[in-house]
């Protein structure tokens, strides 16, 4: 009995040692705070673990030179808050208008300290549940058939405290520096520790390893005080304005390109860093050589006994010795804390710095483990903005909606409209939606058609990579076909070697809309929801499978797709062709004539005129329609001088009097009266 009681007490103690939450979020950076906000608004049980004493600890150190490259456009000429988010790359999504980043900085490229302040306020003002000074050092699984996903996630912090949760959201970002090991790499200084005081580099010759924004940021800081700067990397420089990828080199940091191309001593080189070697001479100078020169040699024997490339090729590019070599190779995801049972595997090729995840941001190895923020960028790497705040604030919201449906039976938010509002709904979204605009080719609006195309259901910003799973992921049904509204660049417009400033680069005619180069809306029509197989076999670089019909809205210099002839009319005709219906709006008089001349009324007349809905006519409105050519010019034979012609009562009486109506065929009247 004593042994049984002792064993029971151990089980109770073991159970009590785990602090349980439905949702655990690792990391209180921007994506962790964004996820916490949505969970809190939904009333869910969650906790955020942050290893530092404050949120956004990454921005307390990086970028080292404190200038963010995310734009803070405070003025757009518009008051629409959703539209303005298209040009606000720093704000997180919330209901609190105080938490817009433009209130924290007036700079177009803000200081990183403003971001730290912003994230602190976001966490405190919204009262997010964050446990600071808690570093999660190990994550493993506990199998349990009663758990949401068939297992629980067990977390251990630096103090050996245990936590248990049903769903794990990883928002740690990529913070482990990329390091390349080669002979002499011990002489290399890291971006994370190198001095940011330009005077420390005065009169020195510097070699920078890397060619991303951190490398050019470092070069920009010391450009005016060094003898010269060389930059070497495996790949050629990629300019963001050519690739349309915000993670490539931004103009704010590219001063070195000027000094290189204008022959002011600085230069760029291409080469595999793993093939390099660094030799330090007696004066402390660093010489660049190639690894194969050091094979079977003792590097400690001295530089005089080692063959250098310039000994064989006297104009070798890096023959001049350097005072300093700086590593600026970016960061990668920290896989070290995850037990093998979670099967958190790195991606392949240029995505190896990210964990492998599905298009719905769930780990490929473990159900219920979602990766958010910068670490989830493998889904749209080098394509869209998913690795940056102005992109992952929307993908984080999408993940939250998927979780709400999976675990709590809350379907994806949607709105049902009559079919007559289809054109207007699409035009409204493509002109103001920020999620579609920033996460182009990744997030899309889904329009689910009701039976007989009398109405439609509108879902916003759904991940197109899991379109085949839409019914399961959203709790919405799609038995009658669907439209997918997405934003795209031209197929052959973006690329490191592309000239994006060539003459006639823009398309202005609606009939050539499919050749649009700049970001523009594209509408795909499917009679049936695409299958998993169709998604796998879609054409290369297509975000979606081949549709039954597709329509490009021609690109617009002002990104304002409201031109009646260039934008709206072609879209409406495309929708009408897909649905075999008439989506025009009509005056009541036209609907009245249709009831006598057609077997089937247009939807606008069915849902408006027949149900006694619509605008009340007046003489002023009638005259305006006549002048616009939308109505026949009826000649009124009698007006009471005591009553103004545009009064409602007068116009009603006058329409009932005998008018001098020109005798014309009814069909001609019908054709003349559609709006």
Number of domain modules: 4
Q: Number of helical runs? A: 20
CATH superfamily of the largest domain: FAD/NAD(P)-binding domain
Q: Would you tell me the overall average pLDDT?
A: 88
Task: Give the strand tally.
Answer: 22
Which regions are unreliable across 5 or more consecutive residues at pLDDT < 50? 3-16, 637-641, 643-675
Which CATH architecture of the largest domain would you pick?
Answer: 3-Layer(bba) Sandwich
Main pleated sheet? 7 strands, mixed
User: Could you tell me the radius of gyration in angstroms?
Assistant: 32 Å
The share of residues in helices is 25-40%
* Binned strand content: 15-25%
Q: Which CATH class of the largest domain applies here?
A: Alpha Beta
CATH topology of the largest domain: FAD/NAD(P)-binding domain
User: What global shape is seen?
Assistant: globular
| SSE-based structural type | alpha/beta
Note the gap between the termini: 89 Å
GO molecular function: flavin adenine dinucleotide binding; monooxygenase activity
Protein name: FAD-dependent oxidoreductase domain-containing protein 2
GO biological process, one term: ERAD pathway
Pfam family, one: Pyr_redox_3
